[in-house]
Amino acid sequence: MYRTIICGIGMGSRQTAIRILRRAAALVDEGGSVIVMHVIENIPHRHLMDLPEEFETNAIVDAEKKLSSLCKELEIPAVIEVRIGVAASLLVSSAREKSADLILLSSHVPDITDYVFSSIVEKVVRHAGCSVLVDRRPAPAHEGSASQAEDVAPL
Q1: Which burial class, exposed, middle or buried, applies to 81 when counting CB atoms under 10 A from its CB (0-12, 13-18, 19+)?
Q2: CA dihedral defined by 39, 44, 47, 53, rounded to 10 degrees?
Q3: Rg (the chain; Cα; Å)
Q4: How far apart are CA 97 and CA 150, in angstroms?
Q5: DSSP secondary structure, 83-142, as one string
Q6: CA 93, CA 100: separation in Å to the nearest integer?
Q7: Per-residue pLDDT for 155 more than 70?
Q8: Residue 14 and residue 21: Cα distance in Å, rounded?
Q9: How many angstroms separate the most distant Cα atoms in the chain?
Q10: pLDDT per residue over 63-74, tens digit each?
Q11: In the chain, what are the domains?
């Protein structure tokens, strides 16, 4: 189906990450690649003085560990990439650099910031040069119990 899939994992629940990773594994061609990408949004410099120097490094290492562990648990071979920047731009540019033929993302319930700034998903759909699959979150009754929807923050 797809040779290279960029799988964007954000700050959602563990169940959402699992659903997206399983979908990517089901859609990738034999011999193809799944690139699991998490973007830590830029922090304005005026706020950096309140954060320890190693904040970004620790955030990257933590996200890489969680994503690697999850992929290993699901037996999904994937390349893990954690970057710092603007999520939509980095997802689109990474897809272009890697000649990806699919970007897989999850939707969320929109809030006021989506209406003011537009959502990451909307920006990726608008600017991607490849297909984008938006995985719709099922109704909460289908997500399972609260213990199953354990957060994997920052993922």
Answers
A1: middle
A2: 50
A3: 16
A4: 33
A5: EEE-HHHHHHHHHHHTT-SEEEEE-----HHHHHH--HHHHHHHH-SSEEEEEPPPPHHH
A6: 10
A7: no
A8: 11
A9: 47
A10: 999 999 999 999
A11: 2-141 (3.40.50.620)
Give the C-alpha separation, 10 to 120, whole Å. 10
Amino acid at 134: V
From CA 133, how far away is CA 15, in angstroms rounded?
A: 18
Alpha-carbon distance of 23 to 58, in angstroms, equals: 29
d(CA 106, CA 20) in angstroms, rounded, equals 7
CA distance readout (Å), 51 to 36, 60, 71: 27, 15, 30
* Cβ(101)–Cβ(4) below 8 Å: yes
pLDDT tens string 113-149: 545 445 788 889 999 999 999 988 664 554 444 444 3
Q: How long, in residues, is the chain?
A: 155
Place of tokens 């993922």: 155
